[in-house]
Amino acid sequence: MTAGFRRRRNIKIVATLGPASDTKDMIKELFLAGADVFRLNMSHGKHEDIRQRHAMIREVEAEVGRPICILADLQGPKLRCGVFANGSEDLAEGQTFRFDLDDAPGDSTRVQLPHVEIFQALKAGSTLLVNDGKLRLKVTDCSPSHADTVVEVGGEISNRKGVNVPDVVLPLAALSEKDKKDLEFVCALGIDWLALSFVQRAEDVEQARALAKGRAALIAKIEKPAAVNAFSEILEAADGIMVARGDLGVELPVQVLPPIQKRLVRGCRAVGKPVIVATQMMESMINSPVPTRAEVSDVAQAIYEGADAVMLSAESAAGDYPVEAVTTMNNVAEAVEEDSIFRQVIEASRSPAKARVSDAITVAAREVAETTNVKAICCFTQSGTTAMLASRERPRVPIIALTPVVETARRLSLTWGLHCSQTNQVNDFEGAVVEAARVAREDGFAEANDRIVVTAGIPFNVPGTTNILQVVNAT
After folding, report:
1. Could you say which of 2.40.33.10, 1.10.600.10, 2.130.10.10, 2.60.40.420 is the CATH number of the domain covering 88-164?
2. Does residue 1 surpass a pLDDT of 50?
């Protein structure tokens, strides 16, 4: 690993790859600008495109000498209406309109909705949203083959526009046949995190886990009201959470999104699982070299809440200024985390640790580091659990996650505050201290006479056995 490279912030940045960031040079530039995680969006690009992007990321990783995390984001089921004889129709407020299973081209009175599962779940009073919520229709009568509605908010409806059903749990699996093929492809390719779309219940996560077979950690995207309602169970089933505000903003009133975001982030922090805040964070930078003040405040709010990561979507995938978007997000993060109010907010929102030895060790490490002149907390970890517990505490000093397992180092690169380093295999605590001191010095966290905290588990190389803490000189 290349020595001396470190971020000057704790929150991580996820950058989506796409046509604007489809070369190795651009990926390297994005990493150097601040991207810690690269997102492969399975909604766009063929498998060969995804394979090439994956290979370029790993080439950049070898060049920069730092572990780089790869997140593959599955598309999920897409609910769309059929086609119209005229290509589109204008629906007026108050008029009636029918959705049905008939594949004949639609007109101003009806159109196909080729999803029998929707009709099975609908009831009188249910809402249907079309075209990202621009049209709103209320169901007045329904059967297993049709739904009669009245238009509440009118506008143009056209071929294959997306349909959202916000107020019912649909009897649809989160994984379509395309998703299952994509899941197997990216897991065989070698990714670190798998993001699941259209999650409504914990069972959706469990289905994906059975297919992933331990080859990737699972992130549940919270983008449906049903997922918000079942959040506790979904959080327990998943390895991490993405607050996917785009679809949430379609299916829920916009004014409830900020408290939902805050509640979801707080819930993830309480159990020590990473949480990404995503969608429209700096959307104006798709076409502009600078963001709006509102966007900067939005990113800052996620940082103050203690989120593990903030995400760029089209800004880095298809925008005119991908590097500037990452650079700006990095600069905002550094400025916020230097603010004294940031520490006050983070510490006031810290949750009590569980009554376990490993939790007690990580709490003690934070307290020792913050009450004495310690430069860094160094965690030896096999599976990543020790380092994630240290991150959960959101300490004031840097956390160095040391592991001989490159897959663990990559996966942990998504987690708040972790500077991940792949080390040599260590078989005793004395060797751990030597390795921790070396990395702390070489990567610029400490000098020879500075003190560091080292945590590890005895016996060594056994996951989940954190039970020892020592303060040592970084000599």
Report:
1. 2.40.33.10
2. no
Neighbouring residues of 301: CB distance < 8 A, sequence distance ≥ 6: 258
**DSSP string covering 315-326:** HHHT-S-HHHHH
Within 258-369, strands assigned E span: 275-278, 309-312
Which residues neighbour 329 within 8 Å (Cβ) at sequence distance 6 or greater?
Answer: 13, 34, 281, 282, 299, 310, 312
CB neighbours of residue 211 within 10 Å: 14
| Pick from 8-12, 169-173, 327-331: least confident | 169-173
Using a cut of 0.70, tell me whether the model's pTM lies above it: yes
Which CATH code for domain 12-76+175-338?
A: 3.20.20.60
User: What is the CB-side half-sphere exposure of residue 81 using CA atoms within 13 A?
Assistant: 32
Would you give the DSSP letter of residue 336?
A: H
The amino acid sitting at 242 is: M
Which whole number is the average pLDDT over 157-185? Answer: 95
Q: How many angstroms separate the CA atoms of 54 and 114, rounded? A: 35
pLDDT of 366 reads 95
Q: How far apart, in whole angstroms, are the C-alpha atoms of residue 102 and residue 400?
A: 59
How many residues are there in the chain? Answer: 475
Q: What is the mean pLDDT of the chain?
A: 95
Nearest CA among 381, 427, 426 for reference residue 438: 426
Q: Residue 424: helix, strand or coil by DSSP? A: coil
* Domain at 357-473, CATH from 1.10.10.10, 2.120.10.30, 3.40.50.300, 3.40.1380.20: 3.40.1380.20
Distance CA 285, CA 228 (A): 29
Segment 281-293 shows an average pLDDT of 98
Q: Is-contact 54 75, C-beta < 8 A?
A: no
Active site residues: 39, 80, 221, 279
240-286: pLDDT as tens digits: 999 999 989 999 999 999 999 999 999 999 999 999 999 999 999 99
At residue 462, does pLDDT exceed 80?
Answer: no
Sheet holding 466-473, edge to edge: 418-422, 399-403, 374-380, 451-457, 466-473
List, by residue range, all CATH 3.40.1380.20 domains of the chain. 357-473
